[in-house]
Amino acid sequence: MGSYSPSSSSKQEKPGLGWMEWLSGWSHLISELIFQKVMSRHLHNPLLLPPLNGVTCIVTGCTSGIGLEMARQLAESGAHVVMAVRNPNAAHELIQRWQNQSSNKGLLSFEVMELDLLSLESVVRFSEAWNSFLKPLHVLINNAGIFSMGKPRKLSKDGYETHMQVNHLAPALLSLLLLPSLKMGAPSRIINVNSIMHFLGFVETSDMNFTSDKRKFTGLQAYSSSKLAQVMFSSVLQKLMPADSGISVVCVDPGSVQTNVARDLPTIVQAAYKLIPFFLFDAQEGSRSALFAATDADIPKHCMKLKVDEWPVCAYIAYNLRPMNPCEEAYNLSTCQIVWEKTLEMIDLASDALELLLEGKKIQCRYGLT
Predict the structure, then answer these.
(1) What is the secondary structure of 153-220 as a DSSP string?
(2) Residue 227: how many CA atoms within 13 Å on its side-chain side?
(3) Run of H or E including 368
(4) pLDDT tens sequence across 223-241
(5) Which residue, 175, 190, 236, 295, has most beta carbons within 10 Å?
(6) What percentage of the chain's residues is helix, strand, coil (to nearest 5)?
(7) What are 47-63's pLDDT values in tens digits?
């Protein structure tokens, strides 16, 4: 179960994006920015959610931005929301405010647990704690992410480039370690909040940590590559997931959203960012694709159809709630398989970890026992 063989027609690794792919990536990004509001004008804001009583959702990075909107709307629809955050105090303050503002005072169901994606040990501790409750988990939304454009390369305490760790490695580890609870809650879903910027990404599998001097490090390159790595890993995860597990894997594009991600952009870019609010989604609009993927009844059927048809990439939902194809590079099956193997190596999980975790067995990694 730990691997699958790419078809002979799959493309081999290459040195980087071709200029046509680069232009195509920017074309997708600019097109989304200009037309997203027109293309999603038919959607309700906020999105209308079904009753979610009895549903448990874990949402990472939900004290600001679109994650905040996800947590609030899921709870208002009846779900029990676990806020997995770096700052528990901020989460408790938000809960208090929401409880005071809610027409159903005291009925919103929240739980706060500390999680720092810059520490893989924290990811393991969180997963151990949640799995020890022996409670079913129905939805995991990997929302937390970073984009430090214009900043020099930084490493986490685990020694990994911070974009790659927060946007890909830590969510991958979290998703795998929570498989026992997700299987218990089946039909369940892993929702990865991705980005249209993965079209500009290229994963150099021999240098996922950006240590080589052959290419100049940029925050844009690191962010887009981490998001592409997430799509590639998700595709193999969905491919290897047994059909009877009842677990669906979905990536979503929230659209171009005006959130506090701009705080890390250069001053001139921040200025431009503030000049185009008409084109940008607000956080509530940006939360719709993840909420749709987490709650729509047809998502498991869509994922299963892709699996039966041996579609090479995971389900991907656009900002307008319609299925979309990820970038061309995401279809490079050879690279996808290498990204899967390299990711397991970087987070110190054995190649049979998926199978063992679905069987409810304990596994060992250097970040802790789970």
Answers:
(1) P-B-TTSSBHHHIIIIIHHHHHHHHTHHHHHHT-SEEEEEE--GGGGG----GGGTT---TTS---HH
(2) 27
(3) strand 368-369
(4) 999 999 999 999 999 999 9
(5) 190
(6) 45, 10, 40
(7) 999 999 999 999 999 99
Question: Which SS3 state, helix, strand or coil, does residue 113 take?
Answer: strand
Q: How many residues does the chain have?
A: 370
Point out the catalytic residue in the list 4, 160, 223, 319: 223
CA dihedral 28, 29, 33, 35 (to 10 degrees): 0
Is-contact 330 235, C-beta < 8 A?
A: yes
**What are the tens digits of pLDDT across the range 272-286?**
566 677 789 999 999
**Would you call 223 a catalytic residue per the annotation?**
yes
3-state secondary structure of 60: strand
Provide the strand spans (E) within 16-143: 56-60, 80-85, 109-114, 139-142
Whole-angstrom Cα distance, residue 122 to residue 170?
A: 9
Residues facing 85 on adjacent strands = 114
Rg of the chain taking only CA atoms, in angstroms: 19
Cα-based angle 327, 27, 340 (whole degrees, multiple of 5): 20
What is the rounded distance in angstroms from the CA atom of residue 99 to the CA atom of residue 96? 5
The Cα-based distances of 235 to 183, 245, 288, 300 in angstroms read 18, 16, 22, 15
Dihedral sign, CA of 4, 7, 12, 17? negative
pLDDT of residue 318: 98
The answer to whether 189 and 139 are in contact (CB under 8 A) is: yes
C-alpha–C-alpha distance, residues 148 and 151, integer Å = 6
Q: At what angle do helices 170-177 and 120-132 cross, to 10 degrees?
A: 20
260 DSSP 8-state letter? G
Q: pLDDT tens across 324-337, in order?
A: 999 999 999 999 99
Separation CA 208–CA 215 (nearest Å): 12
Sheet containing 188-193: give its strands across: 109-114, 80-85, 56-60, 139-142, 188-193, 247-252, 315-317
In sign, the C-alpha dihedral spanning 102, 104, 106, 111 is negative
d(CA 338, CA 297): 33
- For residue 341, give the 3-state DSSP assignment: helix
